[in-house]
Amino acid sequence: MKNLASITLFFLLILSLNAQNTQDASLLSIDRIYASNEFSQDFLPPIKWIEDGESYIIIERNEEGINELIKYSASTEEQSNFLSSSQLIPENKNEPLNIEEFYLSEDESKILIFTNSKRVWRSNTKGDYWVFDITTQKLSQLGKEFPPSSLMFAKFSNDNKFVAYVVEFNIYKEDFSSGEVMKLTSDGTNQIINGTFDWVYEEEFGCRDGFRWSPDASTIAYWQLNASQIGEFNMINNTDSVYSRIVPVQYPKVGEDPSSAKIGIVNVKNGKTEWIELEGSNIQNYIPAIQWISQDKLLIQQINRKQNHLKIWLYQPSTKSTTLFYEEKEESWVDIQYPDATSSHWGDNDLKLVNEEKSLLRMVEDDWRNAYTIDLASGNTTLVTSGSYDVASIAGVDNKLLYFHASPGNTTQRYLYSVGLNGKRKDKRLTPPTFEGFNTYNVSPNGKYAFHSHSSALEPTSVRLISLPNHKAIRTVIDNNVYQERLKLLDLPTVEFFSVETENGILVDARMVKPINFNKSSKYPVIFSVYGEPWGQQATDTYIDLWNIFLAQSGYVVIAIDPRGTPCLKGTDWRKSIYRQIGRINIEDMGLAAKEIIKFPYIDEEQVGVWGWSGGGSSTLNLMFQYPDVFKAGVSVAPVANQLTYDNIYQERYMGLPQENKEDFIAGSPLTHAKNLMGKLLIVHGTADDNVHYQNTEMLVNELILHNKQFEMMAYPNRSHGIYEGRNTRRHLFTMIYNFFLRNVSNRDG
Question: Whole-angstrom Cα distance, residue 665 to residue 582?
Answer without folding.
Answer: 8
